[in-house]
Design brief:
Number of domains: 1
Helix content: 25-40%
Radius of gyration: 15 Å
Largest sheet: none
Number of strands: 0
């Protein structure tokens, strides 16, 4: 089942731009903030608890939302969550 809760960060007006070109760019107000990402991560974890209570779930998402989910789950800052490698698997056991 697909959920928009796992989509990539909303980069607003930076969407589709070449990242190295943005090195010195001023961030605009239309970019999804870290707090907004973490709120979406909380909503995702609540969704899993509600819809898949007691079941094993494989969730696939982009790096930054995966990091936000782990930060919420472990109650840590995002900077304290190690970067995930491509196709890396991390297991989170939700208490229901």
């Amino acid at each position: 089942k697909v959920t928009p809760l796992l989509r990539e960060r909303d980069w607003g007006s930076f969407t589709g731009r070449y990242i190295p070109d943005l090195k010195d760019a001023v961030w605009t107000d239309d970019i999804e903030t870290i707090d907004e990402l973490k709120l979406r991560a909380e909503r995702f974890l609540e969704y899993i608890r509600r819809e898949y209570n007691g079941k094993t779930v494989l969730a696939v998402g982009h790096g930054i939302i995966n990091k936000a989910i782990q930060a919420v789950f472990y109650n840590k800052e995002m900077k304290d969550i190690p970067r995930m490698e491509n196709a890396e698997v991390r297991v989170l056991k939700l208490k229901l």
